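Reminder: ligand-aware prediction takes two inputs, not one.
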Amino acid sequence: MKDKIEEIKKQAEYCLNCKNKPCKSGCPLQNNIPDFIKCIKEGNYEDAIDILNETTIFEPICGRICPQESQCQGNCVRGIKGESVHIGNLETFLGDYLLEKGKIQCNVANDNSKKIAIIGSGPSALACCYYLATRGFKVSIYEKHNKLGGLLRYGIPEFRLEKCILDKWLEKCILGPNVEVFTNIELGKDVTLEQLKIDYDKIVLATGANISNKMGIDGEELECVLGGNELLEYRKFPDFKDKKVAVIGGGNVAMDTSRTVKKLGAKNVYVVYRRAEKQMPAETKEIEAAKKEGIQFLFQTNVIKVINKNIEKSQQQIECIKTELIKKEGETREYPVNIEGSNFLMDVDYVIMAVGSGPDKKIIDKLGLETSKWGYVKVNENYQTSDEKVVAIGDLIGTKQTVAWAARSGFECAKSIVTEIN
Ligand SMILES: Cc1cc2nc3c(=O)[nH]c(=O)nc-3n(C[C@H](O)[C@H](O)[C@H](O)COP(=O)(O)OP(=O)(O)OC[C@H]3O[C@@H](n4cnc5c(N)ncnc54)[C@H](O)[C@@H]3O)c2cc1C
Ligand code: SF4
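Here is what comes back for the chain with iron/sulfur cluster:
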């Protein structure tokens, strides 16, 4: 422990406490990073936590799994000539301190008699719940799974976020006298929006967007083709032992599914990505970890067909084609174009689609709310949907699909509710 504290202090000392706080601007939650780091330098961890708790309650979560290299650390002045300050490690240290010893800002027992229903229990829902419950609102969470956490539990694998940390955090920071939890209840199946509208002052929809996108290629309907999001959510894995698996995509879901499948005993796992390595949306540390674990990468490769080679022996193939990257006028990101005649076949047992995800259309259609052309629930600047009693937050409204962005929408929406209802 002494060594850990020395290491943390050393990392904090490396921070320059920049007056213009570029790291703070890079944080979706606008955490006051230089000030909390200053408190760590002084050994004053409780004050450091208080500073963070002005804008977040997700310290033990975000410290571990935020894509810091594209958020706070990506903006760190130290990173211009060398290594950025390890802000994520410092936040994790404080988060763990909060869980073990620190003051817990759990919600209080006062009651302002207003009742809010939150549907879903991912980071957007939990941020909203925390903010409202600490201000005396009675919050009821309705969740279709049997435990809380959303993709923190039913998406991000254990090897990146231990569920015992999530459980402890929920217990100490989120649950309290003003929060009532109904698990195994699915909106649209076990309860309707109309019923909830009678019982509550406001309904907050936070059901996420975890339905895997399709590529629209031939053979996609074959049984060997699986959705990466659903695979990680429901963990109903086929027997991957000694199998060859191709994972299509280059983001978080591609990294998490490929590493999970490899850990489940697959012999060869290939990540097939149509752009170059430097354009992968996944974080560098995840790509490096995947490479170390033996996952093979095929960059600038597009999959154009899944072929059932031998139904009886369940042998499949994917037809791939190489791509070249071209600059399109007015666009900063290079675009992949198939190179004619560069097609090749690969033998695989399973193909996993990890090419993005969207909301559950079946449920959204039942709710009768206005949606965008991509299927996200439409909201105004106060997260108000086309129904005046219903607000929506998180991935469901098309936020940037990270935990911190989802949490930000939850906090902001809660503030709007407080202003409107009080
Ligand atoms: C595999 C994977 C890895 C990821 N890794 C990272 C990462 O490292 N860092 C990062 O910042 N982001 C990561 N993300 C993205 C991040 O997890 C999401 O952006 C975030 O969880 C969205 O939060 P949310 O509250 O909008 O929804 P979700 O977390 O998706 O939660 C939605 C909740 O609603 C529930 N629900 C859905 N429909 C109903 C219904 N009809 N009735 C009741 N309940 C319902 C679901 O069960 C779920 O609990 C990852 C995503 C995935 C899929
Ligand atoms: S930009 Fe980097 S060095 Fe400057 S205050 Fe933020 S963390 Fe410290």
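The radius of gyration is 23 Å. The chain has a mean pLDDT of 94. We will return to this case in the review session.
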